[in-house]
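2024-03-11 09:14:02 INFO queue: dequeued item Phosphotransferase system HPr (HPr) family, len=98
2024-03-11 09:14:02 INFO validating residues
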Amino acid sequence: MVERTAQCQIASSINLAMVIQFVKKANQFNSYILIETDKSTVNAKSLLAMCLLVPSFINCTVTLRALGTDAEIALAYLKDMLSDRFKPCTNSREKISS
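2024-03-11 09:14:37 INFO prediction written
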């Protein structure tokens, strides 16, 4: 199993569209992908699970784990998404708050 750690710098809310984008990208890979915080571990390919996990993303370290033929590529891409693209939400209708 390949493991990567990514530091998330996310404001107190996150844009739902970004969570959907993350889940869609995770589903493009063949590997089994998990995302873990200090509170729980969920399947990164599950939109419901990711929405439930998002409140614990705020200013934390998450661990990405993957098992499969494209695990290295998947984790590198998803780590970049977590580190660079999860920005504060500007549209209040698409927020997930803690």
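2024-03-11 09:14:37 INFO annotate: Residues 88-98 have pLDDT under 50 and may be disordered.
2024-03-11 09:14:38 INFO item closed
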